[in-house]
Amino acid sequence: MSLEAKKISILKSEIPVGIHILTVSDLKLHKKSNGEIITFEGNPAVIVSFKNNGLIHQELYWIGSTNYTKLQKIIVQVGLDPNTQINKKDIVGKQIQGIITEIKTMRGAEEIKSEKKLSDTFTLVEKVKQQQFIEYKQEGF
Question: 12, 2, 17: which is closest to 100 by C-alpha?
Answer without folding.
Answer: 17
